[in-house]
Amino acid sequence: MTKVYRSELTPISFLERSQLIFPNKTAVVHGSRRYTYRQFGERVYRLASRLRAVGLEKGDRVAFLAPNIPPLLEAHYGVPAAGGILVAINTRLNSQEIDFILKHCGAKFLFVDAELKHLIDPLSLEGVEVIRIDDTGEERDPYEQFLAAGSPKPIDSVLEDEEETISINYTSGTTGNPKGVMYSYRGVYLNALSEVIETGLNSSSIYLWTLPMFHCNGWCFTWAVTAVGATHVCLRKLDPELIWDLFHREGITHYNGAPTIQIMLVNHPKAKRLSKQVVSTVAGAPPSPTLLGQMNELNIRPIHVYGLTETYGPYTVCEWHEEWNDLPLNEQARLLARQGQGYVTAERARVVDDQMNDVAWDGKTMGEVVMRGNNVAKGYYKNPEATKEAFAGNWFHSGDLGVWHPDGYIELRDRSKDIIISGGENISSIEVEQTIAQHPAVLECAVIAIPHEKWGERPKAFVTLKPGKSATEQEIIQFCRERLARYKCPDQVAFGDLPKTSTGKVQKYILRNKEWAKMDKFIN
Amino acid sequence: MTKVYRSELTPISFLERSQLIFPNKTAVVHGSRRYTYRQFGERVYRLASRLRAVGLEKGDRVAFLAPNIPPLLEAHYGVPAAGGILVAINTRLNSQEIDFILKHCGAKFLFVDAELKHLIDPLSLEGVEVIRIDDTGEERDPYEQFLAAGSPKPIDSVLEDEEETISINYTSGTTGNPKGVMYSYRGVYLNALSEVIETGLNSSSIYLWTLPMFHCNGWCFTWAVTAVGATHVCLRKLDPELIWDLFHREGITHYNGAPTIQIMLVNHPKAKRLSKQVVSTVAGAPPSPTLLGQMNELNIRPIHVYGLTETYGPYTVCEWHEEWNDLPLNEQARLLARQGQGYVTAERARVVDDQMNDVAWDGKTMGEVVMRGNNVAKGYYKNPEATKEAFAGNWFHSGDLGVWHPDGYIELRDRSKDIIISGGENISSIEVEQTIAQHPAVLECAVIAIPHEKWGERPKAFVTLKPGKSATEQEIIQFCRERLARYKCPDQVAFGDLPKTSTGKVQKYILRNKEWAKMDKFIN
After folding, report:
1. Whole domain around residue A411: which residue ranges?
2. Cα dihedral sign for A267, A271, A272, A276?
3. ipTM of predicted complex
């Protein structure tokens, strides 16, 4: 029985509303192309109705392999409107990795950008309908032909429960194979509202798509920007010169990026103080004092946030206190470097010991960061064991190690899950280790993160060769490049014995202590 | 079984969060008193724990009769934290009306401000524990003694389902007796987030309590302001001179008010252009061109919103379009006078004919405004018949008549439910009629709204006397004053026959046509 006083939370309502209220306002900018909210909505319904017409049934997975272009944004509404589940694939993966994801999620459709098509050409994709996107917006573009065959009229929702799955986001976790993190309608809806509130989005905002939409569905900004009737500015490529042009030409007010991206931007010759303040969340790692100073100088206000794919992107924010404005820059950066506390729709993030008790709020005692509630995803698709493990004790275990400060803010100090974060992208050290171990000359190996000025962290491999065999650093790196996405391959390879415990377990901390000797924590 | 990825939506989480993140920030200002978020939270937990200690059980009703003072704000957290249901009573009601509400809701506790205590003195309140509030904040204040006996530590939640009732707000409806509108935790949570987004609240905001907290729980700003860690500035009384002082002294950024209040403020001798823009929602009736011009002049940005007690206060907002800035003031006022469309968390407001079909989007065809979804309250407490009637056809029937413009915005034109809105307060014309009918000289009567410059609308009575009996206008008004809250009593009484249909039904529209001849619609 329908309740008059309840509607299931769905981000599709955001588009319906902005299409009604701001039909002639610019919703999407892509180079010289512009779509109003009316057009954006019509394109979404064309996509949805066409998907249904060609056989999509409720719950079917629809994969997209594309940069930040209008079709991928449209997919965030059109796929769920049709009743499907969106799988936006990381465009930096290689063919085998993409193949694993397509097969694991059982994609029925795959939309692929023409420039990325070479990645799927080697794959046998039986049972998957592939639609190419030329990103021209013109009639002959196969994606546009797909839309043209659909209807621009709103279609009936098949959503019955806001806890249904709207998207699956694959992430590199502790094991070699990526895991599919399931997002719910309720979760992305609340998270989108939170992003609006935390970053102060409103109908005058102009959001630049520097953050990949395949990352946690662009941390739900795909939905947040639309919720307030703001403008999406798409971006095929992270070109800092173009970004500075867009800042001025389009009047950008908001963008998101890891420190790597921020550093690239603030150091670009075109960098010039912005007349109107631009807000930018910084995720993946905290901004250094230098970076913070440069951003201030350019009139870019950083908001430091922290989260994981399993938490719809950001879960915590380092809420700024006005009185910090008067502190020296180094002190400001030190305070801002902390991950802070949960978003307005999130529960308190905790740092706990092995018994799940809170650690002391002393800024010293280490523990694991755990989270729960509406900002935690539903679990891993077709992987109940991994879900059970991650949700042990009824809390989501981030695998990140940190401390709890006397003021309640948490701060990360290390990662327990062997994740390397390079330029905002997760790399599983175990995946890299398993790849190197396949090399015929390798006896065993360990991969750790080492600090890197530009990328934050990069993988370094420590390799023991089999007796009588030989391999060079370049051979090992090349071996990885043939098997892994390029960004996952180690920059450095060192040869020799690995430090081990008496029971034979590799002591990675000894390797890390040496590499991180100059830093005060093990993440960068 | 607890789901790791779900928490029940509750606005108490907003206070928990702000207490954690902004412990030393000013949460509440009341004259020279100031409470930080830590203190605010501790006072709330004292209230909650003390309520439990003295016998409050889950679902018990706790009534408050108080102006906009800290205890009533604290009640919005402390009562639900204890597991109770808050009943904030309109302070302008008379003793009988208050008696009805206390008995109807079955209040177990009544907190009453010392200045309003005379209203309950005549009542027999067996079984109700009465706690007086002196509003001194000092030790000898009975309310402070109540808190002192409680514990400042957070207490365990007893909330099991976000659709449970958090508060009951009594409203004058179509019938004489007020109806208790039930708000859910989910509803107020989502509504609070919407208010944050629509009015742009953030942690720097300073909110002035011009809107009564007993009105739809202060339209959920009681919770919204806390959600972002902003500051509440309390206000015992609507004193325009004090308000202008507070604008400057406290740096107010937001307040809410009906046009009556706005007019009072902009025309006050102390009115002076504000250096920083202040945002004010205008509800109950649209701002006139004159008022809009004056507000612009003073740097106050009006946001026109519309809703009812049954919709948590505002349901629609007249979202401003940037291009309207260039239009003449009259034209701006005409566009802003429209009620607009649903909030970001609301579904589309519809205007429908008798068959529940959408009327034409022509700005001319009249129909009833209907609404549904998360921004609609749960129904009327202990009044399933009224709930069933209001929810007929699975939509909430506002009783308001309006048109649908070609751009999708709705605009009210009349009310079908005999509601008179005077200075932002609802008056039931039927309640006034039933009162007048009790006068021994009265045969029958009809009460309608007439336009009023200051109050928007005021009640006027048309009375037919019994043959051979007599009564003067002043006698009738006095008779009402002895039985009704003063603001409900008619300003004018006219004597004579009432226009009727052939079946004997009073034709109110004929009376109204005459009184409203100079206006283009029947609401003001």
Report:
1. 350-415
2. negative
3. 0.89
Cα distance between residue B258 and residue B264, in whole Å: 10
* Residues within 8 A of A (CB atoms), B 21-50 only: 21-23, 25
Q: In the A/B pair of chains, how many CB contacts fall below 8 A? A: 123
**B365 and B471 housed in the same domain:** no
CATH number of the domain bearing residue A20: 3.40.50.980
Distance between CA atoms of residues A102 and B408, nearest Å = 42
pLDDT tens for A102-161 read 999 999 999 999 999 999 999 999 999 999 999 999 999 999 999 999 999 999 999 999
Query: A442 and A361: one domain?
Result: no
What 3-state DSSP class applies to B108? coil
Q: Which helix (H) or strand (E) holds A265?
A: helix A259-266
Given its phi and psi angles, is residue B200 left (phi above 0), alpha (psi -120 to 50 degrees) or beta?
left
Contacts with A377 from chain B: Cβ below 8 Å:
5
Residue A188 Cα to chain centre, angstroms: 14
pTM for this one? 0.89
The single-letter DSSP state of residue A406 is T
- Does one domain contain both B386 and B506? no
Domain stops at, among A153, A186, A219: A186
- Domain assignment present for residue A257? The answer is no
Residues 6+ apart with CB under 8 A from A451: A457, A515, A516, A518, A519, A524
Is residue A281's pLDDT more than 70?
yes
Least CB–CB distance from A408: residue in B20, B204, B322? B20
Query: What is the chain B residue with the closest CA to A322?
Result: B204
* Residue B294 belongs to a domain: no
Q: How far apart are CA B244 and CA B251, in angstroms?
A: 10
- B325 in A contact zone (CB under 8 Å): no
B321, A378: Cβ pair inside 8 Å?
no
Helices (H), B149-214: 185-199
Interface check A2 vs B, CB under 8 A: yes
Q: What's the Cα-to-Cα distance from A226 to each of A24, A72, A192, rounded to whole Å?
A: 14, 14, 9
Q: Do A344 and B14 touch (CB under 8 A)?
A: yes
**B197 touches A: beta carbon within 8 Å:** yes
Total of domains in chain A: 3
Name the 3-class secondary structure at A367.
strand
